[in-house]
Amino acid sequence: MRIAGFDIGGANTDLAIVDFDKKGGIKNIGTDFKYLPMWSNKKDLKDTLLNLINNIVALDSVDAVGISMTAELVDAYETKKEGVLEIAKEVKDIFNIPLSFIGINGVLSYEDLKKNPLDVAAANWIATAQIAGKIDENCIFIDTGSTTTDIIPVKNGCECATGRSDMVRLATGELVYTGLLRTNISTFVDEISLDGNNYKLASELFAISADVYNVLGKIATEEYICDTPDGSGKSIEESRRRISRILCADLDMLSFEDIDNICKEIYKKQIQQIMEGLNQVSKRENLDLVISTGLGKDILASSAARNLNLEVKSMNEFLTDEECIVAPAIGTAILVEKHLNS
Length: 342
What we know:
By secondary structure, the chain is an alpha/beta fold. The protein has helices at about 40, 45-55, 80-95, 110-115, 125-135, 165-170, 210-215, 235-245, 255-285, 295-305, 320-325, 325-340; strands spanning about 1-10, 10-20, 25-35, 65-70, 100-105, 105-110, 140-145, 150-155, 160, 175, 190-195, 195-200, 290-295, 310-315.
């Protein structure tokens, strides 16, 4: 059986094509993803889904489709319910093969989704949790993507998150709204120390976390897969220029060394931001093993765990590094296969 698992995010749409044998074992995984800002380009969703599949296999070779989503939160929709229903209907209109959706209580049909649309809202971590549970039955998995970080406890192989919605998870430590690429720096940094002075930051969207890691050499230019705040390029110099603006400065006023030091301080503060959520979950659940995945698994998630003296494993013990980037999409396909063959 060949299943296409999609994770439709607000900024990125991820795909995993998973081939299963007759016993449900994984024979092969093909992955791809596309930057699709749903707040401005939701009309492109259909073409994006079809193109992603056709980049890997022929559409008529796919036996079923599974969907997880977080895009319902974007401000193109007045409510999350509206977003879930609109996205789900568009997907249903595209595919004429078995279609399932990942919800906080399991796998839903389209008809089930229409009855309980909020069960599907931002439930992609449900899919990732069961992959983490295969690595260790008792752990916390951290999935740091371009925009957010999920911190989900797993016990006896099953997720046991206290929060069942994004809003509640913001209070429980299980969702930290910070990511490797798209995070506005002024949302988690109040001031920067430079040359013996403390400078408050300009609360404008001048620079994002991708600029920090571009300057520090932690991502390659081609890994800067989102729009830049000022609409200009993605060179290191252009990232430095954007970073300078958060101090109401420019590259005539700040040296490259100044910018590098600013970026190092921002990096430490973003790790600290994730540490706060992870510490909250670790202490509450009495778990000290962390499994990291996502775009930022090595740069942010693993660093936060080690700073708390927690044991760290990477999800690349089960998946490749490329597959870790789209772990929720792979988990979606796995859950759908189990559902169809149960």
